[in-house]
Write a structure and sequence with these properties.
- By secondary structure, the chain is of the alpha/beta class.
- The protein has two domains: about 80 residues, Winged helix-like DNA-binding domain superfamily/Winged helix DNA-binding domain (Arc Repressor Mutant, subunit A), CATH 1.10.10; about 160 residues, Rossmann fold.
- Helices cover about 55% and strands about 10% of the residues.
- The protein contains 15 helices and five strands.
- Helix 11 links the parallel strand 3 and strand 4.
- It is globular and about 65 Å long.
- This is RpiR family transcriptional regulator.
- Pfam families: HTH_6, SIS.
Amino acid sequence: MDRASTLLQLIQARLPELNRAERKVAEVILNNPRQATRLTIAALAQAAKVSEPTVNRFCRSLGIGGYPEMKIQLAQSIASGAVYVSQAVEADDEPEAYSEKIFSSTIASLDNARQRLDVQVLNRAVNLLIQARQIHFFGLGASAPVALDAQHKFFRFGLAVSAHSDILMQRMLASVAQTGEIFVIISYTGRTRELVDVAKLARDNGASVIGMTAANSPLAKVSTLSLDIPVPEDTDIYMPMSSRIVQLTVLDILATGVTLRRGVDFQPHLRKVKESLVATRYPMEEEQEEL
């Protein structure tokens, strides 16, 4: 992805590093990117209650030559579909506003992940999963139900699959790991110390570790391979939303890759699993009418 299409994400990521005045400029842009493309430098400075030189310093801090160039890149970001990636829900938002923000940010986050996902790393992950004699999905907190969802998907492949959200159980399983076992560790930040320790322990015992986490995070660095999942959301303030949706989507991609790699001879097995549920459901209204 080029620089223009990631400008909003870049601004969001740089917020903690900006001084107070430059942060005001960033917040005005993030709160309404479309409006910011129509503002002159004087109008933006007035909206942020800063000086025009501060706006120029803000641009240079992002590696951009000046305000006109920043407006062009901002417009390109909007055209790329990244408009709402950095828009957070505000305390005074009405239902129309916060529902629109959540839908839009989720769509934009999925598109961002789609563009950044390395298909070569994805293919290597599918290869590992196909060859695994046992797969463990680990997640803590908001990633725990994602790990459980993975177990529901992957057991259909006739593999020994488990999901665990208890760190003590995760550590015990990693301590007796063997070659041929795969540990898929799911973490939005990749900075949870216990999960990083578990990944190291599993690898020391001969297992392979697939990290589903942030690029260049401690977890990514200790994993056998890492599926980098970029999701810019503030999980310190609001419940995690987009990160979970992206994680689930990547797991769907992996499961599809495994299914396709198994070939058509494996489809009767999947059909048998699905048909086993028919007796547990009420028939649809159309079927009842026929009866």
